[in-house]
Fold this sequence. Notes:
Shape: globular
Structural class: mainly beta
Strand order of the largest sheet: 2-6-3-5-4-7-1-8-9
Strand content: over 45%
CATH class: Mainly Beta
Amino acid sequence: xxxxxxxxxxxxxxxxxxxxxxxxxxxxxxxxxxxxxxxxxxxxxxxxxxxxxxxxxxxxxxxxxxxxxxxxxxxxxxxxxxxxxxxxxxxxxxxxxxxxxxxxxxxxxxxxxxxxxxxxxxxxxxx
Length: 127
């Protein structure tokens, strides 16, 4: 049996820009991509904490150390600059792989700089 599992997550990122006049995707600082193990052009799910919107798109790398999180194209209508979001990528694992796999979870500060990198989550409020 194959299972769809959380592979990577960037939690509490702040939208720095919403660019309607772009072909599509989400631009993410390439340092955040590297830390989270999310690849360029990888499919991601975006959840807007402020308004509850959920959408899927793909990733393009932004300038390192820019802290950019920019939704582009039609997805820009689902968010506003300043909104807090969660960015998640998934993988498909067999049952044995899933039992030992731990996702990469990145918690960020308000400016999208990395606060903490973990391989797990626990129930409760954000630190």
